[in-house]
Design a protein that fits this description.
18 strands, 2 domains, 364 residues, globular, Hydantoinase, alpha+beta, S-Me-THD_C_sf, CV3147-like fold, single chain, seven-stranded antiparallel sheet, six-stranded mixed sheet, CV3147-like
Length: 364
């Protein structure tokens, strides 16, 4: 059922999106502020369910592309994503009926809300990742047969263009990434244009609502002086993710981070607060793998979230700092993200990790 987002909802939604972002997707704080500015201008955002889309509706996903660290330092004007959507509309010769997140995690949860507010388009309660991933072919849209082309990109100086690689989404990522680097390391995008029927077939459903529920869960647990980690575990058990578990608590003792090839890559080391155990994280924008004392404990596409040890406030990869006391959550990926087709696109080996995927339940 269509519902109008209240401006008060945005903080909870952004917090939950940061959790689902598994460290990446960009910090939603800036995106939230830009959406709030649209509300101050009298605009609003309407969220609709998958079942409210007409089969022949044109839905154009919108997102930001580039290294999250750059996006924090190189602030956008706020109109780039709307320009990308309009550019793609011009190319297609048809107006969009709705937009939808490419990923529900991090700042890319906010981009379609901003576009929806600016252009008066409803935002579909779904996405193509159920989390955040660093490369544009790593979406359930593409896994289940949709082409990202034609694909529009815009930069902060008003530059824009359209790429078309036919059905080859990997080549589209390679070319679009190169353009994003030339645009200063960050760009806004519109691609994977689909019909309403195709969105229903290929998207991860209900993820904007889930992000809102997660953010509210953390806030209310803190307000009521309850354990937010326990509250999150209980909430996830009643979703398509099925399981969440706090696998580690400790202090960050080392962070290595570099921006290269349009990605933020690196590792972080966390020393246990209760014994001599050590957890090591590897990330490419998002956390990909967690080892405890050298043994793999969680691996992509299952989710790894680093949060403040006391408040459970999510911490992005660019926000990791020496000395922070953190908790590490492992969250099971939905079934749509664990099929052989999906794992071939965003399983461990797609990131160059020499391991096969095993669900977090099998790695305890």
């Amino acid at each position: 059922m269509a519902r109008e987002l209240h401006v008060e909802d945005l903080t909870d939604l952004a917090r939950g999106a940061a959790l689902l972002g598994t460290g990446g997707g960009g910090d939603p704080y800036l995106g939230r502020l830009m959406v709030e500015q649209e509300y101050l201008r009298g605009r609003t955002v309407t969220v609709i369910g998958l079942d409210e889309l007409a089969d022949d509706a044109l839905v154009i996903p919108t997102a930001g592309m580039g290294a999250p660290t750059v996006r924090v330092e190189k602030l956008p004007t706020g109109r780039e994503a709307s320009l990308a959507l309009r550019t793609l509309e011009e190319h297609l010769g048809r107006r969009a009926d709705a937009t939808v997140p490419v990923e529900c995690g991090g700042s890319n949860s906010m981009v379609p809300l901003l576009v929806g507010a600016q252009l008066g388009l409803p935002v579909v309660d779904a996405d193509g990742m159920g989390r955040a991933f660093p490369e544009l072919q790593m979406v359930t849209f593409g896994v289940y047969g949709m082409s990202g082309s034609p694909f529009a990109l815009t930069g902060v100086h008003g530059e824009r263009g359209v790429l078309d690689t036919g059905p080859d989404n990997r080549r589209l990522e390679w070319l679009a990434r190169g353009l994003t680097v030339r645009m200063g390391g960050t760009a806004s995008t519109a691609g994977f244009a689909m019909s309403g029927a195709e969105v229903r077939r290929t998207a991860v459903p209900g993820t904007l609502t889930l992000a809102f529920r997660l953010g509210r869960c953390i806030r209310e647990a803190r307000e009521r002086h309850r354990d937010p980690f326990q509250a999150l575990t209980a909430l996830f058990a009643d979703t398509m993710y099925e399981r969440a578990e706090t696998i580690f608590r400790g202090r960050i003792v080392d962070v290595e981070r570099r921006t290269t090839g349009g990605f933020a890559r690196g590792r972080a080391v966390i020393q246990s607060s209760s014994d001599d155990s050590v957890l090591e994280l590897e990330f490419q924008n998002e956390h990909l793998l967690a080892r405890i004392d050298g043994k793999i404990r969680v691996v992509v596409p299952d989710l790894i979230a680093v949060v403040n040890a006391e408040t459970a406030e999510p911490i992005t990869t660019e926000g990791l700092r020496y000395g922070q006391r953190v908790g590490v959550l492992a969250i099971g990926a939905p079934a749509i993200m664990r099929t052989p087709e999906a794992l071939s696109v965003f399983g461990p080996r797609a990131f160059g990790l020499d391991v096969d995927f095993l669900p977090m339940n099998d790695l305890t």
